[in-house]
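Dear colleague,

Following up on Tuesday's group meeting, I ran the structure prediction for the two-component complex that the binding team flagged. I've pasted the input sequences exactly as they went in, so you can double-check that nothing got truncated or mislabelled along the way. The structure tokens for the whole assembly follow below. Feel free to forward this to whoever is handling the docking comparison.

Inputs:
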Amino acid sequence: EVQLVESGGGLVQPGGSLRLSCAASGFTFSSYWMHWVRQGPGKGLVWVSHINDDGSSTNYADSVKGRFTISRDNAKNTLYLQMNSLRVEDTAVYYCARVARDSGDYYWFDPWGQGTLVTVSS
Amino acid sequence: DIVMTQSPDSLAVSLGERATINCKSSQSVLYSSNNKNYLAWYQQKPGQPPKMLIYWASTRESGVPDRFSGSGSGTDFTLTISSLQAEDLAVYYCQQYYTTPRTFGQGTKVEIK
């Protein structure tokens, strides 16, 4: 079964840091581009970042550029999101998502993980 | 960035009736070289992650009931639920995967009338 399981969320003060992980199983992780998407409380879905299959190419939403870093360890089948200088507005459920096909990035997201909640508050 | 705008923000439909959700992109998501629209629809129920419904604007994901259908091309798209069931209560999102950043519509909440 294809599965993505996020972890690492929690409560952090403004200006703090957190690292999210997304453990992948049931597919050849190293063949797929991966994404992070977040959803603020009662809000819609917002794309955060993506990384290519071998980790050599990344991209970020303007709102997190310079503060967040996406990475992956293909040997461990794990995707990461290092979040620094956190702000109250970063409070959200963070989902990792895989692109649907193993031949590039221009595909829909499927599957999604269950999400991990990040709360930034003093 | 491509802006995705859904309408309406919410709609109440009687069980067994048709529900129609519209999605408009600020620029075309039709790739001329393969004639595919890079547009997906997701369903999200409370407390759950989004679930894939429709990709390439009109291709139903395996296992998705055939009461769900997608149509449209270029900048204007529609998700139709032909006969609303109680389990269809959810928020529905369109998303373009034509370019980065990936962008989503604001969501349409479907409720029972």
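Chain A has a mean pLDDT of 97.

Cheers,
M.
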